[in-house]
Amino acid sequence: MQLHLNNDPDIPDAREFEELALSAGACPVEIVSGQLKQVNSRYFIGSGKLEEIQQLIQLHEAEVVLFDHPLTPSQERNLEKTLSCRVLDRTGLILDIFAQRARSYEGKLQVELAQLEHSITRLVRGWTHLDRQKGGIGMRGVGETQLEIDQRLVNVRIKAVNKSLAKVRKQRDQGRRSRKRAEIPTVSLVGYTNAGKSSVFNRMTQSHIYVADQLFATLDSTLRKIELPDVGNAILADTVGFIRKLPHQLVDAFRATLEETIEASLLLHVIDCNNDERALLKDQVDHVLADIGAGDIPTLLVYNKIDLLENQLPCVDLDEKGKPWRVWVSAKTGQGMPELFQAISDLLGEDLFEPELILEPGQGKFRARLYHEGVVKKEKVEENGQFCLSLRLPKEDFTRLLREEGMNPASYLEKFTSDNETNEATETLTS
User: Fold this and answer.
1) Cα 162-166-172 angle, rounded to 5 deg
2) With contact defined as beta carbons under 8 Å apart, do 236 and 223 qualify?
3) So what's the pLDDT on residue 139?
């Protein structure tokens, strides 16, 4: 059931809604659509649409009616009672898909939390013989109603799941802190569901995580180490895909997984370039990123599936500052992957410091340590035996290494700054 509300600027996508139903294991027999001027507080839809749906249920012997809109608990119950079949809104449908796909312990906990928070308002009043009665002798009931007992049990379970997820979040925080201490950047894949994030992840890491042409094929966050030119080791994270009108319960429940995105050094926004609505889907993902607090993280657009386009070669598009902002690739054929790695390195390497360091022959131990750290780009030996090393590393690491060696970093930083200012002045005069 798809309706366009007059006050809703987001026009429903019938194809996406059908794919959601197929992903949940349903077999759609009819799609009812239309426009709704005003929401009916009792049934959400008007009496005419309600009668039309009743006739279609009888014609196709349908067992479930899916609404591509959020329904209140009372609307859901009233519709089920009138239509004599199960009714699910958009949130319930997505939760059902997530429940089927979750594989890891963390993923199952997150889905359970979202389901519990969604269902607690939908508990049906029952066991009325346990209701509290009026006060007075001979008029008192046995205590809580069955509805209150159910609500209390659900709240107890929500607290238990939140406690377990807190432990998972703590473990993730420890892993992130360890990577930060080791100066290992994290690159997180984001994008609309079914854009090809897992395929890009497999191609970049030579992994074999589950890939399917369906919505929400990936739920569990996966981390792998990759090697980047000029940068070294980095962590690549594959995350759950986003979708239009992503339910708030899922955003809150998957907060632990989404933190890999929030704490990332760089986001790879994977976009299906063969999709005619790619601009709209990109805006939807940007909206979700802003909601979770990741809107200001540097982002590289990855236009995937160029193998489905004619005359589109792998390439890197640069912005007005000469920085990569879009890469055209095909995860299926591997086209554009070298360009993607280089673009990531260029963006992550912006904050790297490239000084020249002169060491005396007696500082061989320090020279060996620099090679062990992997920060030496080039070396030249002078006639007097001095080592002239060209380095590439974060400025904080350069300062720390010099201090640990008992050298004064201020003089080197001052020299580097003055050299840069001279070079910039020369370039300005030349231009």
Assistant:
1) 140
2) yes
3) 44
Dmax over CA atoms of the chain, in Å, equals 108
Tell me the three state secondary structure of residue 180. Answer: helix
Q: Using alpha carbons, list the distances in angstroms from residue 78 to 96, 174, 319, 418.
A: 21, 48, 55, 75
Asked if residues 190 and 197 have their Cβ atoms less than 8 Å apart, the reply is yes
Confidence band, pLDDT 50/70/90 cuts, at residue 412: low
Rounded to an integer, the average pLDDT of 70-92 is 88
The mean-pLDDT minimum among 81-95, 226-240, 308-322, 414-428 falls in 414-428
Domains of the chain and any CATH numbers: 2-88 (3.40.50), 183-350 (3.40.50.300), 354-430 (3.30.70)
Angle, CA 356 vertex, CA 355 and CA 359 arms, to 5°:
135
Phi, psi of 389 (to 5 degrees): -105, 130
pLDDT, tens digit (0-9, with 9 covering 90-100), for 374-388:
778 888 888 888 889
Q: Which residues contact 152 (CB under 8 A, 6 or more apart)?
A: 144
Burial-class residue 297 by CB neighbours within 10 Å (0-12, 13-18, 19+): middle
